[in-house]
Amino acid sequence: MLPAFEENAPTFSENAAGKALHYSRLNDGLVFADDSGLVVPALGGAPGVHSARYAGSQATNSQRIEKLLGAMRGKTGAQRAAYFVCAIALAKGGRALAIVTDRVDGEILEAPRGAGGFGYDPVFYLPALGKTFAELPAEEKNQRSHRGKAFRKLLAALSSML
Fold it and tell me: What pLDDT is recorded for position 45?
């Protein structure tokens, strides 16, 4: 069992880099780690790096969504803007080789829609598609999501290193 890494940095990139560096010191070869979450500017950036723990460390997705919707109550128009961020760090032997990030912009709905995805997907709405992440087929979500976009950047970085 590997010793755990405590994610307590103020940014997604720092958390991803911290994890990758930590585990790369304990393992031979390349190690990558990510950190991702939802950012709502009208909430001062919350849930942010605390996205998974926004409603408490043992909270369910439904409880996190409920807390978010409560915080968003009364907010309209541009105040409902939000974006998902994913940062991925690549390390080897305690040395960072690459850190990539990407994001996808959307808005927070007033109520969940869709049965797919996880986390905040049922309330994260993509206006250009007229759908939430939870309403998209997995393949389409992977093409548009912050995580999919960041992983494609990581693959490009890896191929340039070879």
Answer: 98
